[in-house]
C-alpha cells in the first residue's frame, strides 16, 4: 500500500544523474529480455500457439465489425453514442479544470482496485483518462453484446476477447497514464524499471521464451517440506498414478476408506497445502483412512493415454490397491473438478457393469453437464480444438502453461495485470503465497485424454446426454444410484455454480447439494478453524439454482463439517486405525511421492 508521501502529486524532482544511469541499465536489461525471447526461435524449440490465438481474436472481432458495418445506420448510431458521451466527458472535465464541481460521466466498479489511488479522482487529467477508458470499454462491450446476427458462441467469444483487450489496455498498466507509477518512478529515479526488467528477463527465461508471470515467491516453498507434508506413504505406482495412503491420527477410523480423485490439470496438493489449510490432513483427523491419487506429469510417452485409461489405470487401479491394503471392498470417493468428471463417468461405467466398490461419491466444483460451462467454452469449437490437436500431435501432450494461461484469463484483473504491473513496472517481487505457488505449478495433459475431454464434454456434452461411451458401454448418469454430495461455489469461474447445480440433478440416487461462498479454490479450501466463507443448504436440487437459493439456509463457516457428517452417516462403523507402513503392500516411498515433484 502506498503511503501519504507517495500519494502527493507534488513529489520531489528526481536525481537526473541517477535517472540517466538507471535508464542505461534499463536498456541493457531490455536487451537481455530480447535475447531470452529470441533464443528458443534460434534453437528451433519455440512453442507455438500464440499466433493461432491472436488470429482467433482478430477473426472473432472481425465478425462483430462486419455485422455492424452491414447496417450503416446502426453503425452511425453506435459511433454517435460514443461521441456524445465523450462530449459530455469533455464538458465535465473543463468544468473541473475551472475549479467547478462536476459529476462523473461514468464510475468504475467499487470492487475495481485499479483506480484506488486518490489522484485518479482528484486530478482532472487522470480522472479524464480513467473515464475515457471506462466509456470506451463500455461501448466496445455493448458492440459485442448487441451485434445482430451473431451466433451465441461467437458473441460469447467476442465479449470475452473485448474484456481481455480492455484489461490489457487499462491506463493503470502504463507509467505515462498511471499517477502512482509516475510518482514511484520519479521517486526511485527509474530503479523500479530496472528491477522490473530484470524480473521480466528471468520470467521469460523460465517460460522457455514465453512470459511466465510470477505470482508468488517460488523460493519460499518446497513440495514435501512446507507444502504437501501430511505424513503418509506411496503404496502403489503405475505409469499414470502414485497412490498415497496417509498415516492415521486417531485410534479408530471409519471402516469405509476414502479415495480422493484430484484433477490432473493441476497437482493434487491443493488439497494438502500448509497444515492449517489441508483438507487431507483435516479428513485424517476426523477418523478417515484417506487415499489420494497423485497423477503423473505426462510426457510424449503417454500421448495415447485416454480418458478411459485414466479410469482403468487411475481409479480402478487405486480401488484394487485399497482393497489389497485394507481388505475393504467398498470406499467413499471424492472427485475435484475434472477429477470429479472422470469419477462421474467411472460411476456410470461401474453401474452398467454391476461394480459396487464405490458406495458414495462427493463432487467438488465438478461439471457433468457443460451447458452452462462459462467462459472456458470460449476456447472450445471445432476449429480451435483442431488447432490444439495439431499442436498436441507434435509433442504428444498439451503444455501445462496453456491451461494455466486460460484459467488466468478468466480473471485477468486479478490474476494477470496486477502482477505484470507490480513485477515489471513497480519492480516489486511478489509475496510468498502458497495457493499462487500451486497455481503456477502446472502440469501437462496427454493428447488423447485432453482431446476426448474437450470434444466429449465441452463441445458435445455427451456425458450429460447419455452418449459418452467407454468401450461398448454407454455411460448413463441416472443409473448411478449411490448417495452423492455436490459442492458448488458461488463465484466459480471454472465450474460455474449454475452448471454444477444442473449437473447434480442427473444422478439417480439420494443427492445433497451445497453451495459455498467464494470461488473454485477458496470456496473448497475453507478450513473450519478459519471460518472465512459461509455455505447454503436446502433440499434436493430441482429446477434453477436461483429458485433453490431463495429457500436455502445460510450457514456461517466452512462446509467441511456438513460433509463429514454426511460421510459418517453413510457407514458409521469404526475399526482400528490402519498404518500404511504396516499394510500388505510394501510402501514405495514417503508421501508426497515422486510424481508430484515432476515439473512441466
TrEMBL record:
Main location: cytoplasm
GO biological-process terms attached to the record: poly-hydroxybutyrate biosynthetic process
Occurrences of domain AB hydrolase-1 (ranges): 287-523
Poly-beta-hydroxybutyrate polymerase N-terminal domain span: 111-283
Name under which the protein is recorded: Polyhydroxyalkanoate synthase
Pfam families: Abhydrolase_1, PhaC_N
Subcellular location: Cytoplasm
EC identifiers of the protein: 2.3.1.-
UniProt organism field: Chelatococcus composti
InterPro entries to which the protein is assigned, alphabetical: AB_hydrolase_1, AB_hydrolase_fold, PHA/PHB_synthase, PHA_synth_I, PhaC_N
MF GO annotations: acyltransferase activity
Alphabetically ordered keywords of this record: Acyltransferase, Cytoplasm, Transferase
GO cellular component terms, semicolon-separated: cytoplasm
Record keyword Acyltransferase present: yes
Amino acid at each position: 500500500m502506498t503511503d501519504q508521501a507517495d500519494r502527493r502529486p507534488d513529489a520531489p524532482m528526481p536525481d537526473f544523474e541517477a535517472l540517466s544511469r538507471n535508464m542505461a541499465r534499463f536498456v541493457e536489461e531490455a536487451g537481455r529480455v530480447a535475447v531470452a525471447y529470441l533464443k528458443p526461435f534460434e534453437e528451433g524449440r519455440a512453442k507455438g500457439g500464440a499466433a493461432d490465438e491472436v488470429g482467433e481474436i482478430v477473426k472473432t472481432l472481425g465478425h462483430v465489425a462486419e455485422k455492424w458495418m452491414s447496417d450503416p445506420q446502426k453503425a452511425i448510431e453506435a459511433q454517435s453514442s460514443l461521441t456524445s458521451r465523450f462530449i459530455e466527458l469533455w464538458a465535465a472535465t473543463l468544468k473541473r479544470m475551472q475549479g467547478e464541481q462536476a459529476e462523473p460521466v461514468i464510475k468504475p466498479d467499487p470492487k475495481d482496485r485499479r483506480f484506488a489511488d486518490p489522484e485518479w479522482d482528484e486530478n482532472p487529467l487522470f480522472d479524464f483518462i480513467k473515464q475515457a477508458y471506462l466509456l470506451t470499454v463500455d461501448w466496445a462491450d455493448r458492440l459485442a453484446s448487441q451485434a445482430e446476427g451473431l451466433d451465441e458462441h461467437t458473441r460469447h467469444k467476442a465479449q470475452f476477447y473485448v474484456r481481455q483487450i480492455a484489461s490489457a489496455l487499462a491506463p493503470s498498466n502504463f507509467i505515462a497514464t498511471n499517477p502512482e507509477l509516475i510518482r514511484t518512478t520519479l521517486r526511485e529515479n527509474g530503479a523500479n524499471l530496472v528491477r522490473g526488467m530484470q524480473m521480466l528477463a528471468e520470467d521469460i527465461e523460465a517460460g522457455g521464451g514465453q512470459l511466465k508471470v510470477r505470482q508468488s515467491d517460488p523460493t519460499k516453498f518446497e513440495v514435501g517440506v512446507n507444502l504437501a507434508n501430511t505424513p503418509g506413504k506411496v503404496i502403489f505406482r503405475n505409469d499414470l498414478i502414485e497412490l498415497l495412503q496417509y498415516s492415521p491420527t486417531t485410534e479408530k477410523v471409519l471402516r469405509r476408506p476414502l479415495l480422493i480423485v484430484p484433477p490432473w490439470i493441476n497437482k493434487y496438493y491443493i488439497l494438502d497445502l500448509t497444515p492449517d489449510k489441508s483438507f487431507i490432513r483435516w479428513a485424517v483427523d476426523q477418523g478417515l483412512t484417506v487415499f489420494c491419487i497423485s497423477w503423473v506429469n505426462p510426457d510424449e510417452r503417454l500421448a495415447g493415454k485416454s480418458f478411459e485409461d485414466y479410469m482403468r489405470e487411475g481409479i480402478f487401479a487405486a480401488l484394487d490397491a485399497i482393497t489389497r491394503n485394507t481388505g475393504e471392498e467398498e470406499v467413499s470417493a471424492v472427485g475435484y473438478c475434472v477429477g470429479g468428471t472422470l469419477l462421474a463417468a467411472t460411476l456410470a461405467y461401474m453401474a452398467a457393469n454391476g461394480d459396487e466398490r464405490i458406495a458414495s461419491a462427493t463432487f467438488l466444483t465438478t461439471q457433468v453437464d457443460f451447458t452452462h460451462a462459462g467462459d472456458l467454452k470460449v476456447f472450445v469449437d471445432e476449429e480451435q480444438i483442431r488447432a490444439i490437436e495439431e499442436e498436441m500431435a507434435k509433442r504428444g501432450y498439451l503444455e501445462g502453461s496453456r491451461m494455466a494461461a486460460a484459467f488466468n484469463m478468466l480473471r485477468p484483473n486479478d490474476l494477470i495485470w496486477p502482477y505484470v504491473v507490480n513485477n515489471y513496472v513497480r519492480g516489486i517481487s511478489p509475496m510468498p503465497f502458497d495457493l499462487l505457488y500451486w497455481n503456477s505449478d502446472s502440469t501437462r495433459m496427454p493428447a488423447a485424454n485432453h482431446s476426448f475431454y474437450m470434444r466429449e464434454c465441452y463441445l458435445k456434452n455427451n456425458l450429460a446426454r447419455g452418449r459418452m461411451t467407454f468401450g461398448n458401454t454407454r455411460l448413463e448418469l441416472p443409473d448411478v444410484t449411490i448417495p452423492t454430495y455436490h459442492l458448488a461455489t458461488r463465484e466459480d469461474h471454472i465450474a460455474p455454480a449454475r452448471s454444477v447445480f444442473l449437473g447434480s440433478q442427473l444422478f439417480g440416487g439420494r443427492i445433497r447439494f451445497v453451495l459455498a461462498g467464494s470461488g473454485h479454490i477458496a470456496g473448497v479450501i475453507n478450513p473450519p478453524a478459519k471460518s472465512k466463507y459461509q455455505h447454503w443448504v436446502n433440499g434436493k436440487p430441482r429446477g434453477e439454482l436461483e429458485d433453490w437459493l431463495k429457500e436455502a439456509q445460510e450457514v456461517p463457516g466452512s462446509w467441511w463439517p456438513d460433509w463429514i457428517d454426511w460421510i459418517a452417516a453413510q457407514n458409521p462403523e469404526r475399526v482400528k486405525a490402519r498404518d500404511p507402513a504396516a499394510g500388505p503392500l510394501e510402501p514405495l516411498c514417503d508421501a508426497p511421492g515422486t510424481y508430484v515433484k515432476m515439473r512441466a
